[in-house]
């Protein structure tokens, strides 16, 4: 096989290895051991303050990430599946950049890069201005996800990449999927 044809496969394999071994710790936390779903504020990309309580009546997925985090990019692909599958009246995704060094322009550039590749990240993005990360981090790895019910109560948390519905080859068969947790809350 031509060496040039092998290069894309090598990148794919390296990307998969990077996702599984990167600084994220794969752990699920029992909701009894985490903070309650207190209201919090964040700065939207439009420059206006928004609150968790603005989304009462919807299931909210809080995604904490940063632009430099490779596994966070994979998480965005899984969140796009959530966004495409569920009605926006039912689910709201809030992706909060937790790196205080990053700017709204950097986050918008990140979103635009996905858009340029045909991937629409059409949900709420914002910046952590009220120490959301300090309140909700599990052990310090990103991406970190929380799922809040319609009343703002935490129902699930996970540190590391969470998959929508299909468990990748090589992952534990008992991996909890986002679809599984969301469907529990909807029914």
What is the topology?
Elements (H helix, E strand, L loop, with lengths): L2 H19 L5 E3 L11 E4 L4 E3 L7 E7 L4 H16 L5 E7 L6 H13 L7 E4 L4 H5 L7 E5 L5 E6 L18 H9 L1
Parallel strand pairs: 4-5, 5-6
Antiparallel strand pairs: 1-8, 2-3, 2-6, 4-7, 7-8
Biggest sheet: strand arrangement: 1-8-7-4-5-6-2-3
CATH class term:
Alpha Beta
Radius of gyration: 17 Å
Number of helices: 5
Q: Helix share of residues? A: 25-40%
The counted number of beta strands is 8
Low-confidence stretches: 7-35
Strand/helix succession: HEEEEHEHEHEEH
The CATH homologous superfamily: Glutaredoxin
Tally of individual domains? 1
Structural class: alpha+beta
CATH architecture: 3-Layer(aba) Sandwich
Descriptive account of the structure:
The chain has 187 residues and is an alpha+beta fold. The protein has a single domain (3-186), classed as Glutaredoxin (3-Layer(aba) Sandwich), CATH 3.40.30.10. It has five helices and eight strands, in the order αββββαβαβαββα. It has helices spanning 3-21, 70-85, 104-116, 132-136, 178-186, and strands at 27-29, 41-44, 49-51, 59-65, 91-97, 124-127, 144-148, 154-159. An eight-stranded mixed beta sheet has the order 1-8-7-4-5-6-2-3. β5, α3 and β6 form a beta-alpha-beta unit. It is globular. The chain starts with a helix and ends with a helix.
